[in-house]
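QA checklist item 7 of 12: single-chain prediction sanity check.
[x] sequence parsed
[x] length recorded as 396
[x] structure emitted
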Amino acid sequence: MKILIAEDDRITLKMLTHHLERWGHTVLTADDGERAWELLNRHQDIFLLITDWMMPRMNGLQLCRLVRGLKRDRHIHIIMLSAKEEKSDLLEGMEAGADAFIHKPLNLMEFKAQLRVAERITRLEAKLSERFRDLQKAHEELQHDLEAAGKIQRSLLPDRTPNIRGVQPAWAFQSCEAVAGDMLNIFYLDEHRMGMYILDVSGHGVQAALLSVSLSRVLTPFAQYGGILKRRLNHPPYYEIPDVIEVAKTLNRRFPVMEQSGQFFTFLYGILDLACGRFRFVRAGHPGPLFVSHKTIQTFEDGGGPPIGIFDDPNYEAEEIEMHSGDYLIAYTDGLVETANEAGALFGDSKLMQLLKYCAYPGAETAIADILSHVKRFAGKKPFDDDMSMVGFTLD
């Protein structure tokens, strides 16, 4: 262990150096505080400073304060030598940064005992530093893995501009962590029908993301991949598209609330008949969509059913909207309206409705982009507490 002694008394300095070197330590010496400070800055591997209180040019208290101001990964243990015995003096030394005191004239047994304490503290700190570095490395690796998982999850989202005849789809996805519990999609079911869903798994982070990814696999519109939105048949047209209520009930059977985690999810799923513009949807504990027609905003606050997985055999109700050219619809997760700013106020349903009413957006794409921008400005520097997603479409 490399030790620095700052002592202007030559006899004390020589005695301490002799014993410390005999006990196997590397010793640096200084006869005043300024010289000691120079050595401390030159040698980054000093673990212990033994300093006298009274020294020329810079005393022990001043040296202690400078040492405690150093930005180093490891703690420098400080033993202060002094003939002072008043409690107020000891307190002043401790406040300056000293870890221990040895009274003059020196008692070799006391000095050796304090040295052992310093060695023990130094070894413990070295172990803690090593463990901290290991934890830091593990954290970085975990963060890297989470970011990779987030990229995989985002790859499950729809194309930025899905090509659906007669429809202008739009969506936004904002996770509060590397991975999210929200998931959405908008897609062709067949040449006559379009499907759209959005879901929000309770909780955040990896556990919620794992369930949302599993759900995205189940909610595929491709019958050959075992999805529940489109079933295979053995006769023409070789598939059938289950009603929205049946989809919700199937999910409820397959994904009961987990006893250990208590996880469940809210869900909105709708089917648009591309020929007549009828949008039939079901919602399970999910906020109702916003339907805008000729600057008139329709909300859906009642109806629906409980979140998926809460009850064994819940009752779900379907709702329908007759859409015409220029009408648009937006579904969202509750993280949107529950976004808080730095003062703790929520964005809320009222601000969302004001935007739709006064901005007179021409369609879902413009509305979703502008709403997201307003929510981010509202939150300011405060990080998002929840995932936030929107999906919708405008009828040509």
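[x] summary fact logged: The mean pLDDT is 91.
[ ] second reviewer sign-off
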